[in-house]
Amino acid sequence: MTATLTQDAEQSRELRFTELVERQSRFVFKVAWAVLRNTQDAEDIAQELFLKLYQNSAWETILDERAFLARAAWRL
Asked: What is the model's pLDDT at position 35?
């Protein structure tokens, strides 16, 4: 039973992250492109940002998604 609850929680977490990426990936790319003016580099930054967020679970505590993601993309 505990394994099922853990699997359900992990699937729910992955679904929420997937929704975040789908909802905000274009925005993150636009911020990165505005700074870099290079499509490939902006795509790399967007990918790196979402990978880092997923690895350290920082995305679960974001209060203002767009502000957080814009600042993080600009810094990368």
From this structure: 96
